[in-house]
């Protein structure tokens, strides 16, 4: 299986060194699978978030956004099936006491095998998972002699289910028998479903229409790993598209195509993506697939597209005893109005943190620029200009002769339009390298010629080419490039 662990580790180190992502609470030795976004990482994440939101709401005729609370009435999660079904098979090694998620354990072993053999093992695992054959999963692990990474033994417990929801007490006094128990939401979708009628009626929305949301979700992963790919606190960008029953197949294919268009708009080649159809469908779905990206750790899910049928709205209607129906006045093929029905839903759900990791993986490049006589190299992040944390580096050649003052005037002109960075320390070459390392697509150097003819040197990150342009043209040039 394809795996470039050296590149993956280099990206992790680069993220910490250049202010993208830090281990959370690091001065206290960190907290497993929890990360903080630094000054550049938070800008990158915000840019991705804003780009998705604009594409999904502002540029659509029939999709609106909401921001639902993280805490929800606990019956929500009973109705959604999470209390009974939101579990993963786990297994413990009796010698090391280390707990593994079964699919992660087998996938990790498969990555050490030749590609065909690894694919065959994964296919066997997926069939056993689909059948919920826990004894078969344990037998598969033992027959392939899959060892614990800590103890090196194959002394395993039986496979059993593990619920992934975090629970907490709600209110100032703990109740008895879980009276005050609430959950940290494991997904953002339910906040959309319980607000379906509020949005539909207040916005006078007509089927088909969508509701989008970006927000935090929490999952008590058995084994969280692989940097920000799988965390216990993460952010989702989801859209639920409400449709007439019976039209789900065509809308499912429509949103598969539309979401891939969005991914390709990030400047990532189509060859780096693939669709993966689910073998085991979630309890709410009649069709589901993932959009996978070829990370340095192999092809992994970035986004899921699911045909959720009417499961969610129907269950919320049952548990809340509130009608979750839509009256459709349109006339059907039989000449009669469609009338009242519970809509079906197509869901698109993309991990914001995984998207950040995808962009970092695609952008990161180590370049050898030197010769045998004069070694030179750089690390560059080739982000799309519209998503780069900093759009323009403004660099006066020296700290004197009025050059910083000209640079500050340019900074004042541009900073209200896009993110700029000003620096006057070190040689211009070192400053260029630092800008490359955080992915800044343009750098402007103000030198003594600027005072004479009003021109500056613009340097392009990807090609490292430089040219003279008028100082007054800088803002418009960069603004046009980041649209």
TrEMBL record:
<dbReference type="GO" id="GO:0015966">
    <property type="term" value="P:diadenosine tetraphosphate biosynthetic process"/>
</dbReference>
<dbReference type="InterPro" id="IPR045864">
    <property type="entry name" value="aa-tRNA-synth_II/BPL/LPL"/>
</dbReference>
<dbReference type="Pfam" id="PF03129">
    <property type="entry name" value="HGTP_anticodon"/>
</dbReference>
<dbReference type="Pfam" id="PF00587">
    <property type="entry name" value="tRNA-synt_2b"/>
</dbReference>
<keyword id="KW-0067">ATP-binding</keyword>
<dbReference type="InterPro" id="IPR036621">
    <property type="entry name" value="Anticodon-bd_dom_sf"/>
</dbReference>
<protein>
    <recommendedName>
        <fullName>glycine--tRNA ligase</fullName>
        <ecNumber>6.1.1.14</ecNumber>
    </recommendedName>
</protein>
<dbReference type="InterPro" id="IPR002315">
    <property type="entry name" value="tRNA-synt_gly"/>
</dbReference>
<dbReference type="InterPro" id="IPR033731">
    <property type="entry name" value="GlyRS-like_core"/>
</dbReference>
<comment type="similarity">
    <text>Belongs to the class-II aminoacyl-tRNA synthetase family.</text>
</comment>
<keyword id="KW-0436">Ligase</keyword>
<dbReference type="GO" id="GO:0004820">
    <property type="term" value="F:glycine-tRNA ligase activity"/>
</dbReference>
<dbReference type="GO" id="GO:0006426">
    <property type="term" value="P:glycyl-tRNA aminoacylation"/>
</dbReference>
<dbReference type="GO" id="GO:0005524">
    <property type="term" value="F:ATP binding"/>
</dbReference>
<dbReference type="InterPro" id="IPR002314">
    <property type="entry name" value="aa-tRNA-synt_IIb"/>
</dbReference>
<dbReference type="GO" id="GO:0070062">
    <property type="term" value="C:extracellular exosome"/>
</dbReference>
<dbReference type="InterPro" id="IPR027031">
    <property type="entry name" value="Gly-tRNA_synthase/POLG2"/>
</dbReference>
<dbReference type="GO" id="GO:0004081">
    <property type="term" value="F:bis(5'-nucleosyl)-tetraphosphatase (asymmetrical) activity"/>
</dbReference>
<dbReference type="GO" id="GO:1990742">
    <property type="term" value="C:microvesicle"/>
</dbReference>
<keyword id="KW-0963">Cytoplasm</keyword>
<keyword id="KW-0030">Aminoacyl-tRNA synthetase</keyword>
<dbReference type="InterPro" id="IPR006195">
    <property type="entry name" value="aa-tRNA-synth_II"/>
</dbReference>
<keyword id="KW-0648">Protein biosynthesis</keyword>
<feature type="domain" description="Aminoacyl-transfer RNA synthetases class-II family profile">
    <location>
        <begin position="165"/>
        <end position="372"/>
    </location>
</feature>
<keyword id="KW-0547">Nucleotide-binding</keyword>
<dbReference type="GO" id="GO:0005737">
    <property type="term" value="C:cytoplasm"/>
</dbReference>
<dbReference type="InterPro" id="IPR004154">
    <property type="entry name" value="Anticodon-bd"/>
</dbReference>
């Amino acid at each position: 299986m394809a795996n470039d662990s050296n590149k993956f580790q280099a990206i992790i180190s680069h993220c910490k060194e250049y202010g993208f992502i830090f281990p959370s609470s690091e001065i206290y030795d960190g907290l497993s699978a929890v990360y903080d976004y630094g000054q550049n990482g938070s800008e990158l994440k915000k840019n991705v978030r804003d780009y998705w939101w604009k594409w999904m709401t502002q540029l659509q005729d029939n999709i609106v956004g909401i921001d639902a609370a993280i805490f929800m009435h606990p019956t929500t999660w009973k109705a959604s099936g999470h209390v009974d079904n939101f579990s993963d098979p786990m297994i413990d090694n009796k010698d090391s006491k280390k707990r593994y998620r079964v699919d992660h354990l087998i996938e990790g072993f498969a990555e050490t095998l030749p590609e065909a053999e690894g694919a065959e093992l994964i296919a066997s695992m997926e069939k056993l998972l689909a059948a919920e054959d826990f004894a078969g999963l344990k037998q598969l692990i033992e027959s392939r002699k899959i060892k614990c990474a800590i103890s090196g033994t194959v002394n395993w417990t039986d496979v059993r289910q593990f619920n992934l929801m975090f629970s907490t007490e709600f209110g100032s006094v703990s109740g008895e028998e879980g009276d005050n128990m609430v959950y940290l939401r494991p997904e953002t979708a339910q906040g959309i479903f319980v607000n379906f009628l509020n949005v539909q009626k207040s916005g006078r929305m007509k089927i088909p229409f969508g509701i989008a949301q970006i927000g935090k979700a929490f999952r008590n992963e058995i084994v969280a790993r692989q940097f920000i790919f799988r965390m216990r606190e993460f952010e989702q960008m989801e859209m639920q598209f409400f449709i007439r029953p019976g039209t789900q197949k065509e809308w499912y294919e429509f949103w598969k195509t539309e979401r891939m268009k969005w991914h390709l708009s990030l400047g990532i080649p189509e060859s780096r993506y693939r669709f993966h159809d689910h073998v085991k469908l979630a309890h709410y779905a009649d069709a589901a697939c993932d959009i996978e990206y070829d990370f340095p750790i192999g092809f992994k899910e970035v986004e899921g597209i699911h045909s959720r049928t009417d499961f969610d709205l129907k269950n919320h209607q049952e548990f809340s005893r509130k009608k979750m129906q839509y009256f459709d006045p349109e006339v059907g093929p039989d000449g009669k109005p469609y009338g009242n029905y519970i809509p079906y839903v197509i869901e698109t759900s993309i991990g914001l943190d995984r998207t950040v990791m995808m962009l970092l993986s695609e952008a990161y490049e180590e370049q050898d620029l030197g010769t045998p006589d004069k070694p030179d190299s750089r690390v560059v992040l080739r982000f799309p200009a519209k998503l780069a944390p900093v759009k323009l580096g403004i660099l006066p050649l020296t700290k004197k002769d009025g050059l910083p003052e000209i640079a500050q005037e340019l900074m004042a002109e541009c900073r209200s339009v896009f993110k700029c960075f000003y620096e006057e320390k070190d040689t211009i070459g070192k400053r260029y390298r630092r800008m490359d390392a955080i992915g800044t697509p343009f750098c402007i150097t103000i030198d003594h010629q600027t005072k004479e003819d009003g021109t500056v040197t613009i340097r392009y990150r990807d090609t490292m080419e430089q040219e003279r342009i008028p100082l007054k043209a800088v803002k418009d040039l960069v603004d046009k490039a980041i649209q």
